[in-house]
Design a protein that fits this description.
With 535 residues, the chain is α/β, with parallel strands linked by helices. It has 23 helices and eight strands. β3 (413-417), α19 and β4 form a beta-alpha-beta unit.
């Protein structure tokens, strides 16, 4: 890849990060600047972008549980939203044709609906990237957003298959049998791939060769293959480790994706005006998502955050428009218009998603008027009983902390996690763990306590941003006890201390101290009893 392109991407991404924006905003801006300077991405950059999207979908599959797609708020919510959006946008676009506006005047009603269909999708890349940066991918709104996006991806695959007249090979019918047959083989390979570079290569092999390549061979979409292979491996004990191993490479390759959007062409002033109309129409998409999700009994906050993560247009919209242009249905200028609208919605939606909880707090009373009288099972009030110590994030660290504290303080300890399956696993093991999201500004209000006030909160979530957000919420809402949190780096420790966390611990430092103490005990057990020096 060109050194100038890499330098520009880094500089703009770095500046965006210093301004408190996600780096992807900087990458998009870099693409536009490079475009103005006459830079062309070329095949290498496009290959990077395609690989990034493929690995992203594979990573989503690793975290996806198929039963999440069967929930009404997902399959029905996605379907209803797409149907209403296509109808409203389609007639709206055709109405602009009657005004004889540029680019609209040549559209027929079917073409208006084709453009509307391309605008009904939201970006999987954007939403997952934003949710990961905020540490909310496993939260209620994060799971709903990703599941809706996967439903949209399935609609896109169906459209592309029909519109291109590309009938899958008869061999596609045996894919379920093939997947069933190779699953134990892949699991065995995954077990024996260790924990380093071989595991990374295994992930690339499955995503790109078996998934994307295999599906292309039988006439199906490559990205769909990567997603399904990810789902196939999701039940393996090392699926989370594989997802983390792929993360760095995925992040790097996705830089190419964001750059290609900005490099897609230089728009005219008229095209900019049309794209501005499309950007304004995103307000309708967000409002409709919010209304639909609240009808499915989600709380106002869950509905708002899910809707804001979907407040954009999608790379699949570009693909749909490209198909229309290649078949001679659409003027190729529509690709530029949709590309510009897509990039603009990314840039606008990034800071809005960063400030989502602040927006919710500001407009909470009005937003809560849309809630139904009954609550979604995952959005129920939290019963904490007589607990006075809360462990937030029941991964390996949180679980060890919970078990240690329970041995000392008994049933006054409670665990919280926003992954329903994690909660079920711990409950089965006899731990008092409930579903709860401490990054939620309403978290304390949702807890029903009996007796003594809470005295200690341990923030042990894997994402630093989630711990930081939870700490801010607990402090702002007047949590009566002490707050402690874990971090991976010294600058993260400083961030936690600056907002008022009472105790922040560097995991690596603490692990080193713990290891040294354990080693001392081992050594002491073999020494005479008169050893007087102790650490």
């Amino acid at each position: 890849m060109d050194p100038f392109l890499i330098s520009t991407a880094f500089i703009f991404g770095f500046v965006a990060r210093q301004l408190g924006l996600p780096p992807l905003v900087g990458f998009l801006a870099a693409g536009f600047i490079l475009n103005i300077l006459g830079f062309e991405g070329g095949k290498v950059l496009q290959t990077f972008a395609d690989l990034g999207v493929t690995i992203l979908l594979f990573s989503i599959g690793l975290k996806l549980k198929l039963k999440s797609l069967a929930k009404p708020e997902v399959w029905a919510g996605a379907s209803i939203h797409m149907l209403i959006t296509v109808i409203v946008f389609g007639f709206g676009i055709f109405g602009l044709k009657q005004a004889n506006l540029p680019y609209f005047s040549d559209l027929t009603l079917p073409l208006a609906f084709l453009i509307a269909f391309s605008l009904s999708f939201s970006s999987t890349v954007f939403a997952v990237k934003i949710l990961e940066e905020k540490g909310e991918l496993g939260a209620m709104h994060g799971r709903v957003s990703v599941s809706i996006l996967i439903m949209q991806d399935l609609f896109a695959v169906l459209f592309l298959t029909i519109s291109l007249g590309k009938i899958p090979s008869p061999w596609a019918l045996i894919i379920p049998l093939v997947l069933f047959a190779i699953k134990p083989i892949l699991y065995r390979l995954m077990d024996r791939s260790g924990h380093g570079e071989l595991l990374l290569l295994f992930g690339l092999f499955v995503a790109i060769v078996v998934g994307a390549g295999g599906f292309e061979l039988v006439g199906l979409k490559a990205d769909l293959g990567a997603l399904i292979l990810g789902v196939l491996l999701a039940q393996h004990d090392k699926s989370s480790e594989l997802a983390k191993t792929l993360m760095g490479l995925k992040e790097l390759l996705l830089v190419g994706f964001f750059l290609t959007i900005g490099l897609s062409g230089i728009p005219t002033l008229t095209a900019i005006g049309v794209s501005a109309l499309l950007v304004g129409a995103v307000i309708f998409k967000v409002s409709l998502f919010f209304l639909i999700l609240t009808r499915f009994k989600l709380r106002a906050r869950s509905s708002l955050l899910a809707s804001l993560s979907l407040a954009n247009y999608s790379e699949f919209g570009l693909i749909v428009a490209a198909v229309g242009a290649s078949l001679g249905w659409l003027n190729s200028d529509w690709l530029m218009i949709i590309s510009l609208a897509l990039a603009t919605t990314f840039i606008i939606a990034s800071p809005i998603n960063t400030a989502a909880d602040s927006l919710y707090i500001r407009y909470r009373d009005k937003l809560c008027n849309f809630e139904t009288d009954t609550r979604h099972p995952d959005d129920q009030p939290i019963e904490s009983g007589h607990a006075i110590i809360g462990v937030f994030g029941m991964g390996r660290i949180g679980t060890r902390a919970y078990d240690f504290l329970k041995d000392l303080y008994g049933d006054t300890v409670i665990g919280f996690d926003f992954n329903a399956e994690t909660v079920a696993k711990h409950c089965k093991a006899g731990r008092h763990v409930v579903y709860g999201d401490p990054t939620d500004p309403d978290f304390l209000q949702r807890i029903r306590r009996r007796g003594t006030k809470a005295k200690l909160a341990l923030l042990a979530m894997s994402e630093h941003q989630a711990n930081l957000s939870a700490a801010k919420n607990l402090i702002d809402l007047g949590f009566p006890g002490r707050i402690t949190a874990v971090a991976h780096f010294d600058d993260q420790l400083q961030e936690l201390q600056e907002i008022g966390v009472h105790g922040a611990f560097n995991l690596y430092n603490e692990a080193g101290v713990g290891f040294a103490k354990h080693a001392w005990e081992v050594m002491e057990s073999d020494q005479p009893e008169d050893i007087s020096r102790r650490p």
